[in-house]
Amino acid sequence: MDKEGFIKFLTISEKVPKGLSKEIVDFDVDAVEAFENDIRRRGERRELHNAVEEDVQLYIRTLVERGQNSEERLLALYRYARFIGNKDMELAIIRPLDGAFVLEKLSETIRGRLGQSKHAKVFRGVSLPELGSSPRDWQTITQKFMRQLEDTVGPQTCKELLLTGPHAGPTEWYEEERETFLNSKDIDDFLKVRHEKAVATLRRHMEEHTLFFNQEIDSDVLNFVASNHEMMGGVRRGNTVYETKIPYMAREYLRESDDTMKKYFYCHCPWVREAIRTGTRISPIFCYCSAGYHKKPWDVIFGRPVEVEVLNSILGGDSICRFAIKIPAL
Questions:
Q1: Which end of the chain has the smaller Cβ count within 10 Å, N or C?
Q2: How many whole angstroms separate alpha carbon 242 and alpha carbon 58?
Q3: How far apart are CA 210 and CA 229, in angstroms?
């Protein structure tokens, strides 16, 4: 382990959030050393720089058995993977973290808005999975949760709860976009700049051979996004902005010919993705959770809550996920 280099990465690099305390840095170093020791104990002829997905999965199982499977520990390994440029390791850690706390946050929202009695009905027999458990098991949890949520509150309230965006992040994430909007000539000018910035970000990832969230970017993906201004940008028609989601694994999506697998590679949600492959039916209303993710930046951009409608979704049987954002009176 390059301890000295990692510490510099944690305290200086632009790839790491500012303000990491000494306690977090020390914890991260210890967590990575523990993972390194685990690989060596298993007698693998690998080190951290060439650790593979299997190494990460086996270690996460060990952490679960020990009750040490915390978000902080996985984030420490994720930061080291980024530091050394090990994409296999990085992806293997992203997957169990991606969206892992969505249902937990929805549970808190439902209890706060509906009260304990209705919360108990919605979550009757629904157990939140342990961090690090396989998303393959999440589809049945989501199916039961959605069935009981709709039975308890009805479709409209169900949509409203999901639109709270349990994975959309804090307001601060979108303040730069609001500034760009305020400095734009009009909404169309803003959308043009927004899309151009997104394409530039993808191009940088392609040129630097780094991951854009969970995926590698090649020229096919770059051209695919650049040619569709609804993707990572938006197109205005009248008083509505239309957005189409970029595929979760765009490179694989573009290369796939099987319809089911194309939908699997398109879908972003770990809570339902496996259901696409198994044919398990989950209410398409759950896709309003994804709509909530797209709603949050527009709430910040316009400085007030916006209305969002799901036009197309993978769970709804479509080949894309597409949303309509109503422009409020400004």
A1: C
A2: 42
A3: 23
Task: Provide the residue ranges of all domains of the chain, joining segments of one domain with +.
Answer: 3-97, 102-162, 171-326
DSSP secondary structure of 253-308: HHH---HHHHHHHH---TTTHHHHHHT----GGGGHHHHHHHHHHHHHHHTS---E
Record the tokens describing residue 23, joined without a space: 């306690």
- Residue 309 phi, psi dihedral angles, 5° rounding: -125, 140
Give burial (CB, 10 Å; 0-12/13-18/19+) of 225: buried
What confidence tens digit (pLDDT) does each residue in 149-180 have? 999 999 999 999 999 988 888 899 999 999 99
Low-confidence ranges of the chain (pLDDT < 70): 13-19
Structure tokens of 57?
């999965």
Cα–Cα distance for residue pair 283/315, rounded to 1 Å: 7
Whole-angstrom distance between the N-terminal and C-terminal Cα of the chain?
A: 54
137, burial (CB in 10 Å: exposed 0-12, middle 13-18, buried 19+): exposed
Tokens 């639109």: give the residue: 163
> Which residues lie closer than 8 Å to 135 by C-beta, 6 or more apart?
95, 96, 270, 271, 273, 274
Please give the Cα distance from 323 to 242 (Å, whole number): 6
| Per-residue pLDDT tens over the stretch 74-98 | 999 999 998 998 988 988 888 888 8
Edge-to-edge strands of the sheet including 322-326?
A: 235-237, 240-244, 322-326, 308-312
Determine the Cα–Cα distance for residues 283 and 144; give it in Å rounded to an integer.
Answer: 10
